[in-house]
Structure formats: structure tokens, C-alpha cells
Amino acid sequence: MRHILLVATLCFGCLQLSAQVTRVDTVTYPTPAIPKQHKSNFNTDFGYTVAIRAYAYEQFPQLFNQSAEQPNRSSSFNGLLFKLNDNQISYRLQAAYFDDVVSLDNACEGCPPSMTGQLKNTAIKVGMEKNVNYSRFQPYFGADLGFMVQRFNTEGHGPVIAEDNRNALLFSPFIGAKVYIVPRVAIGAEANVNIAFTHQKTSNYYSEALAARTADQTKKYRWEYFFAPIAAITVQYNFGLLSQ
To answer: For residue 142, which of 189, 90, 95, 93 has the smallest C-alpha distance?
Structure first.
């Protein structure tokens, strides 16, 4: 009887063990979910940038015999910028044009105490800028070389015709920053100081000489320094993605 119980117990144990064994090739596993790589919506590594100068608040070269402390003049939507970007270095080409009626006080000998005229200024610059990082907010610095042509004329604004024509070679160090507000679109702001070697030619046509168009003329070469606390507020569009 004891042997029979032992055999029955062993048989029952074997049946239990076989019931718990499952073949590996019959098990169904769920498909593993591999997380997708996260991509930033603000990839800032673009090859090209085009921008419009939306606003500027800056000084211009001295007019006639005014003091070196020139007033700041504001302008808007009067400049374009193109940049070729290579990692954190950008090569830039820009042009700006100013055209407005301005008033001067005690500008020249023999001129009225106050006179008004048309001031036109065109500047073209090429340069390099260095971005500090690749983040959404990017400070930068650099320098431009350029050429400026300026003309001030009072004809049609008073009894005395006075002209101030000036050509200038420019060296313009600058600092600035830009921030991406949406993918590909950034807002930039920068300030600069202009170191200029200028050639100035002034002409005063007094009333008795208007018919003959003869003038009292003066020519000068000089070094000048003028500042732009807001050289440009730009709206920039970036394209040509360099890296994913």
C-alpha cells in the first residue's frame, strides 16, 4: 500500500510540472515600441538668411560745420540684408537708404540760423559675424567694411541754396542678438559704431550768384566717428537647412 501511494504521488507531481512548462516558440510577445527621435522645432542651422531692416535709429556724418555730436535720426523699412551662413560664421552683404527732410541750426557761415533741406544717404557694407551659440536666442558680434554716399541740399526750402556732398569709407564693428519666434523666422537687433574717412564738399549759392550758379565751395578730408544705438531691427527669414 505504501508503494502504491508513493507511485501515485510521483505521477501526480509529474503531471503538475508538465502542465506548467510552456514552449518558448508558442509564446506571443507584444511588438516593442521604440520611441521616435525628438526633433526640435527651432533648428537654427540654416545656410542662407534674407532680412529686411524694419527700423533704425542712428547718426549720420557731420553736415557743414555742425558739431561732431550729430542727432540720431529714425527710419523704417529702408534696408536689405543677405547672409551666407557657415556653422557659426556668417558672411553678410547689406544696403540701406535714408531719404528725409531735416532741419539744421547754425550749419554754415553765411547760412540762415535755421535751414531745412533734403538729406539722402546710401550705405553698402560687407562683413562677417560670429554667432555665440546655436540656440533659439543667439548673441553675435562682428564687423563690416563699406562705402557711404551722402547728399544734403536746401534747394526749394529757403532763399539760400546750400549743398553738402560727402563720400566715406567705413569700418563698422557691431554687436547684436537674434531670437527665433517661429521656425525659420527670427527678429534681430544690433548696434554699431562707424569709423569713417570722409571727403566733404560744401557749396553755398548766395542770392546774388544764383543766376550764374557760382558758389562758395569748400573741400575737406577728415576722420569721423558716429554711432547707431539701433543700427537695425531686422525681420529675418532663414532657409537651406544644413543639419537635421
So the answer is: 90
Q: Where are the alpha helices (DSSP H) in the chain?
A: 2-20
- Alpha-carbon distance of 127 to 131, in angstroms, equals 13
Tally of CB atoms within 10 A around 61: 23
pLDDT tens by residue, 35-93: 555 455 567 888 999 999 999 999 999 888 777 678 899 999 999 999 999 888 999 99
- For residues 199-236, one letter each, b for 16 or more C-beta atoms within 10 angstroms of the residue's C-beta and e for the rest, the string is ebebbbbeeeeeeeeebeeeeeeeebebebeebbbbbb
> How far, in Å, CA of 234 to CA of 81, rounded?
9
Phi, psi of 25 (to 5 degrees): -75, 0
User: Cα–Cα distance between 92 and 94 in angstroms, integer?
Assistant: 7
Q: 32-45 b/e with 16+ CB inside 10 Å = b?
A: eeeeeeeeeeebbe
Of 217, 225, 222, 229, give the one whose Cα is nearest residue 199. 222
At position 230, the amino acid (one-letter code) is I
Cell of 126: 560687407
The amino acid present at 77, given as its one-letter code, is F
Model confidence pLDDT, tens digit, residues 3-45: 565 555 556 556 555 555 555 555 566 666 565 554 555 678 8
Q: Are 178 and 140 in contact (CB under 8 A)?
A: yes
In the chain, the domains with their CATH numbers are: 43-241 (2.40.160.20)
